[in-house]
TrEMBL record:
NCBIfam families: TIGR01244 family sulfur transferase. This is Bifunctional protein tyrosine phosphatase family protein/NAD(P)/FAD-dependent oxidoreductase. SUPFAM superfamilies: (Phosphotyrosine protein) phosphatases II, FAD/NAD(P)-binding domain. Residues 3-110 form the Beta-lactamase hydrolase-like protein phosphatase-like domain. It holds the Pfam family BLH_phosphatase.
Amino acid sequence: MQLRQLDGGVYVAPQISVSDIPALKAQGIRAIICNRPDGESGDQPGFEEIEQAARAAGIEARYLPVVSGKVSDESAVEFGSALDEMPGPVLAYCRSGMRSATLWALSQAGRRQPADLLAAAKGAGHDIGGVVRRIVNGGRTPTDTGDASFDIVIVGGGAAGIAVAASLLGRVKDQSIAIIEPADVHYYQPGWTMVGGGVFQPQETAKVMGGLIPKGVRWIKAAVAAFEPKDSAVLLDGCRVVKYRRLVVCPGLKLDWHKVEGLVETLGRNGVTSNYRYDLAPYTWELVQKTRRGRAIFTQPPMPIKCAGAPQKAMYLSCDAWHRAGALKDIDVHFCNAGGVLFGVKEYVPALMEYVRKYDASLDFFHNLIAIDGPGRRATFEVKAPDTEPSTVEMDFDMIHVCPPQTAPDFIRVSALADQAGWVDVDQATLRHKQWDNIWSLGDVMNAPNAKTAAAARKQAPVVAENIAADIAGRSATAQYDGYGSCPLTVERGKIVLAEFGYGGKLLPSFPKWLVDGTRPTRTAWLLKERILPPIYWRGMLKGHEWMAKPEKLAVDA
């Protein structure tokens, strides 16, 4: 007998027998729902046998049979009513557990998010993607889908989505293109580090979404609920369906603030801040200006995260401000990193360590933030160093800059597009999906082993556009992505270590060493970050101008 939990009070299982009842009783099951019709198989015990044994054990039982492959809306409603009426925990069973899991998901569709239901069923070993459209429609079979259809659909209106749309417009003709994006505002997120360092004003990093969607591209202002790749369809909240001939997936990452206990309740006050949110970056600078003594903590969660250098950038700019104000000597600075290295590409570490020493910052490796008591000004870390027993450490703080844990959005992680880790599964050179050949992905949600930065998306967009254009023309992929990413590490106000690298940590500098030596802090790199990159982003990348981002030709084995 294999019990699989769907939620706190509902379990599913394959066909049970009378001999299983004592074990179910011992495990605390108080009610049983049978979703398998009697006589479906010759070796199947009848419901009456199960019911008698259950009742003798003090377990309530109910018969709600459903023919395999014919789960009706009415059956789902009846199943939901049974869950409401019967004492829990409840075990539902059928031949394999699939019908029971489907009934549960449909019955809960109006109460919980589709991604949560799909994830719970998947965790119990059941893929219920076949009824995702009904789940999105509140558990009911849609009667009028009102489909829209486009040649190319792009999911996500961030840097990657708008850039690839603009690059496509320069390559393909007579193709209808749509971007699905629910947000009204588009943010230049690389600028938030500078806001937190008192260099940029927050309004410089935000523009109205409608003014950035390329002319000729349809903007569908909606959130994605699920994918149906077998039917080349994207399901939106409200069960609207958008069909596509080719799909590009680039919705960005989910910032999982709730994964740190107590964090959401104290963000923006009690000295708790983060440059990973538009509204909080100004608070970072406010805290830096006010803090003149005590302890300042800067955290970095387990990888992957957006711009792996951003957590330490906040530390360097803050320390530089305190150094200039003569306050640094009275501030105990800690960089608490869940990983075991300061930066993943070793060539840049020596220059960074010079600043760690200059600012007298403590490097606390293998420290993962798990809880914050804002009013008490106390942070709790789980410490998992190699060859040592895991432990927890508490640290008091006067100011703490938090980098939140990050993951792919829920609707990506539970979809047929994702790999085992929840990221869109692509070929790392062509960025085409490994299973669905009319789907491509770029930006932060795909599983190529590159740094998740806007600079990476700037290089990826032309590659995807070039390969989609080749596909439309009936040709094989022609462009490849080399894993390029860039992380301008703001080690002090006026100087940057410009880290540029590709797959395997290979250094990929954009400039000759005499102009910008990326392994050393330079004023030139700072001017690039402060003066040049923002207009390149707004007026170049998002407009389809591929300055220093022309796609590399795909290498073909001889």
